[in-house]
Write a structure and sequence with these properties.
The protein is an alpha+beta fold. It has eleven helices and six strands. The termini are far apart.
């Protein structure tokens, strides 16, 4: 490995927090962003089959334990965090539409959203307050966190599954799908009715 790759390896190993390409370039002095990206790709390939991996989460890089070895480092049984249907819906809306306000979440869901639901997601570390919308009333807006990406093994929000993928895995409620199909059929005018209208 060349000197830049070794320097980046040392910097990430010693860093307390994940680092972005721009931070690494600045830290290393005269390195360009393009050279840092190339070195990161080389380093990630080097660690691909090792006990630790170099991964990118939300455009920031860090080392983490290889997924197949994580069980060796756990000393306590993990508590399974089960989200209510409401919390799951709110998390999905935030992930796909962020940054989004509570009123916008309620508009998409069609029902009121309890403040407790957002609190649960923020306590889990998956949702954060991302500022305020610059409109009258300046409502708080919410977004997902790097911990959300890390928990679900996503590099960025671009890796979120699409509707077709969600249907294929059975994560979409078939009752909701059937209702959507029924509503679509009711709103379509039969061809014979269209012909009758044109003859009138």
């Amino acid at each position: 490995m060349d000197e830049l790759v070794r320097a980046i390896e040392a910097a990430l190993f010693a860093a307390e927090e994940p680092m972005a390409v721009e931070e690494l370039a600045h830290f290393l002095g005269d390195a360009s962003n393009a050279d840092v990206r190339e070195a990161l790709a080389t380093l990630a390939g080097h660690y691909e089959q090792r006990g630790v991996r170099l991964v990118e989460r939300s455009k920031r890089w860090h080392f983490e334990t290889a997924p197949d070895l994580a069980h060796l480092l756990r000393r306590e049984k993990e508590q399974v965090r089960r989200l209510s249907r409401a919390a799951t819906e709110v998390l999905a809306i935030i992930a796909y539409h962020e940054p989004v306000s509570r009123a916008e979440i309620e508009s998409i869901r069609g029902v009121q959203t309890s403040g407790g639901t957002l609190d649960v997601l923020m306590e889990a570390g998956w949702v954060k307050i991302a500022g305020r919308r610059e409109v009258p009333g300046r409502p708080t807006i919410y977004a997902t966190t790097p911990e959300f990406l890390d928990h679900f093994g996503l590099t960025s929000r671009r890796d979120l599954p699409g509707i077709a993928e969600l249907r294929a895995t059975g994560l979409l409620d078939p009752i909701d799908d059937a209702y959507d199909a029924m509503v679509g059929e009711e709103t379509e005018q039969p061809e014979e009715d269209i012909e009758a209208d044109s003859d009138a």
